[in-house]
Amino acid sequence: MFDSDGDGKANLAGCNPGWGCEREIEHQLDAYKLRSSVTHDQGSYFALMADVITRFKAGQPIFYYTWTPLWVGSVLQPGRAASDSSDTALHPGFKVNDIDILANKAFLAENPAAKKFFELVKIPLADANAVILREHNGEEKPEQITQQAKEWVAQHQTVFDGWVKEAAAAK
After folding, report:
1. Start-end of H helices in the chain
2. Tens of pLDDT along 7-62?
3. Are residues 47 and 109 in the same domain?
4. In b/e form, how buried is each residue of 146-159, taking b as 16+ CB within 10 angstroms?
5. What would you report as the CA-atom Rg of the chain, rounded to the nearest whole angstrom?
6. Containing H/E element for 38?
7. pTM greater than 0.85
8. Domain check: are 37 and 119 in the same one?
9. Are the C-beta atoms of 40 and 14 separated by less than 8 Å?
């Protein structure tokens, strides 16, 4: 089904040689004895993804590795089909990442409201992917990124205001 080069094996669009994900994919191919049925296509990751996206838009089956957050998650969304193809599905072979805020301990000790705010903030992965897609598509200047943040806050004003109110109470 995922054989894109006609050799009888599924083609997995993977990672650049030397990347950590490349080593993990290689490990999983061995650990699950998949080498006889899966080829790990490697090279420039974003060139591989351009091919994957083209095949997806043409309704062809795709099999690829990605990480999150990344703009790819806004283009290839689990559960969303392209043209008349079947629905897509996410099958994590790795631990699903969390998005966390890192801050200087001294700053947090001096600013309990900021510490509480950072603890409360939860940006949905789809929203992070969407912003990264906009940056990938050229909206990468500081003022454009600031505008994207303002738009996100406006779209989630009630939740954002709740975070601010609860954080302010932590003083």
Report:
1. 20-31, 45-57, 72-75, 105-110, 112-120, 125-136, 142-155, 157-168
2. 999 999 998 999 988 998 999 999 999 999 999 999 999 999 999 999 998 988 89
3. no
4. eebeeebeeeeeee
5. 20
6. strand 38-41
7. no
8. no
9. yes
